[in-house]
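Listing S7. Sequence submitted for prediction.
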Amino acid sequence: MRNNRWSREQLKLAFHLYCQVPFGKLHSRNAEIMELAQLIGRTPSAVAMKLVNFASLDPAITSTGRAGLGNAGSLDREIWEEFQANWEGLAVECNRLRTALVELQGQVPTLALDPDEATGLDDFTGETRRVVTEQRIKQHFFRRAVLSSYRGRCCMSGLSEPRLLIASHIVPWSKDKANRLNPSNGLCLSAIHDKAFDKGLLALSDDFRVLVSTELKRSQDPFVQRVLLPLEGRPIEMPERFVPGTGFVSRHRADEFVDNKARN
């Protein structure tokens, strides 16, 4: 596949990886970048450069003064827009493209899932196994994209233990199919903050400050008083990429936040 012009398939795989690698690790010594370079027949430096080109299209990057390389081409922009319009389909497509390249090189493809995500797949067969596998591939992509954007830390508490972190949907998975895998519809939260956010006990203002529900404020629980109540009005730690969409934040506040439900 080596040539000077990047194909659409190569660019999709590159952007797919860009979404999952922390900004500070977009360099040629990164093992994942080296692996992709080997698969598509390019040098690690070329792949790293392409990922930094994608960064120049990312508003969350450029708004902080980090401009990337600024050499993104028209096809790079097309791939960027294509992902924004169809995160779910492209996440699955990129997994298939990668599997095909691995097989073409005579290797045995393996699922790039965390151990807990891969658990139980052998319990299914046929079409059911395919559907379950695709679902976990999608969830794996969303988790990596969100956690890497937030530097692997809960944006409300700062917790960095990965086993206790959740890639939390702002607008619930069940209520917005088109944005199920959109990283801008995600927050990196600890398990307890995720549960409180999911239950509408916490929400965000449009300027990304934490709103604590009246129900929690009335709680006499020592943990709630010590850990959750002090969050009121505190800004979340913003991600390096994929800033939460204000549309998603306002929808969550209107539809899920218990204080607004009580008024309705």
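Caption to Listing S7: primary sequence and predicted structure tokens for the chain studied. The chain has two domains: 8-110, 151-263. The radius of gyration is 20 Å.
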